């Protein structure tokens, strides 16, 4: 690999990890009061109304994270021999971006607009359910199916070995478990698996950059 291209990929992965880590911290900090976790819809409406700017900017960080995940999977795919399954894997990840971004736009802009127009809490709850399934079930499910397929291909082609391979497979499977719990409506379990999957995934990205990426 050309040194310049290698450096672009290497540092891109680090930027992606920083963005995703920031998004996770925002979700567990400034965004938490507006998420349907340990509060009522009235409390969420009040929080979003009082924190509109940080709420929307935080969701913008998640939008960047979605694009960043695709970029990482493209870098992973570039290490593989081209074949049909490789194309399917990257296509699945790419398909996950659309529902994920739609959900984040709903959270970032549509829900605050509904709140500002005082159209009622029922509309907010319906939008929350739609957005949660778009991002947590459909988008996340496609990301992790595609990532898992690319990782299995990397193992079969000898790109990933031993504990690095196992780490990647476990991270993607835990991500799929997140989608399962979102589909089941278990928000608390989904939150737990989000935290675990994000920690493992971002750490694995760094490991990939330092241990696997070919120079």
Question: What is the alpha-carbon Rg in Å?
Answer: 18 Å
Sheet/helix structural class: mainly alpha
Run of helices and strands: HHHHHHH
Major sheet details: none
Quaternary structure type: single chain
What is the percentage of strand-forming residues? under 5%
List segments where confidence is low: pLDDT < 50 over at least 5 consecutive residues. Answer: none
Q: Mean pLDDT, as a whole number?
A: 94
Descriptive account of the structure:
- Keywords: Membrane, Plasmid, Transmembrane, Transmembrane helix.
- The chain crosses the membrane at residues 7-28, 59-77, 84-110, 130-155, 162-183, 189-209.
- With 215 residues, the chain is mostly helical.
- The chain has one domain.
- The protein is built from seven helices and no strands.
- α1 runs antiparallel to α3 and α6 (162-184) runs antiparallel to α7 (187-212).
- The longest helix has 36 residues, at 121-156.
- It is elongated.
What brief labels describe this structure?
7 helices, 215 residues, 0% strand, mainly alpha, single chain, elongated
Quick synopsis:
By secondary structure, this protein is mostly helical.
